[in-house]
Design goal:
Distance between the termini: 24 Å
Number of helices: 6
CATH class: Alpha Beta
CATH architecture: 3-Layer(aba) Sandwich
Structural class: alpha+beta
Strand order of the largest sheet: 1-2-3-4
Length: 175
């Protein structure tokens, strides 16, 4: 299953909205799963939201030392969006280069491992040498995904004003 760069693709609006709807209930149960809040603008103006995501990967942002983010959808064999993954540069180190989530109904099926592996393969082709990722110490599923893909624990870090210390991992890509 290849990663699909988020853009204005035909027939993806209902798929993305269905994906985002899954997060509404999850966020009510666990406020740390705030992906509904992150993506809910998709219901107000889908095209403008996708434009915003596309603009974050404009190469001029790299030259201007602004945060640069590429958002990808990850699809299953039925072409449902089961997760999203982001590659980020020009951001504070404690946030890591990668962020991702797997929709609650698709967890524990190996999609996280496959999704991160696909991103690593893409970045290797681009010449990226290493990545950092941060995750909550109690997020065992995410830790398994990162370690499966060669991640090694580096240190505990604090993100901004958050009280919780996060675990920082590093993955060497071009070794």
């Amino acid at each position: 299953m290849p990663l699909t760069l988020i853009s204005h693709l035909p027939n993806f609006e209902p798929r993305f909205k269905a994906y985002v709807e899954q997060w509404e209930e999850a966020e009510k149960k666990n406020p740390n799963e705030d992906y509904y809040s992150m993506y809910q603008r998709v219901f107000e103006d889908y095209e403008a939201f996708i434009d915003h995501l596309v603009a974050l990967r404009d190469p001029s942002r790299l030259e201007e030392k602004k945060p640069y983010v590429r958002f990808y959808w990850f699809l299953n064999d039925a072409e449902e969006i089961v997760g999203t993954i982001r590659y980020r540069t020009n951001i504070p180190a404690e946030f890591g280069n990668v962020g991702y989530e797997i929709a609650p109904k698709h967890r524990n099926k190996g999609y996280g491992k496959q999704m991160l592996k696909s991103l690593l393969e893409q970045l290797k082709r681009e010449g990226v040498e290493r990545l950092t990722l941060t995750l909550s110490a109690d997020n065992i599923g995410s830790r398994k995904v990162v370690e499966y893909n060669g991640g090694t624990f580096v240190k505990k870090v604090k993100q901004g004003e958050k009280v919780e210390l996060l675990d920082m991992y590093e993955i060497q890509i071009n070794t």
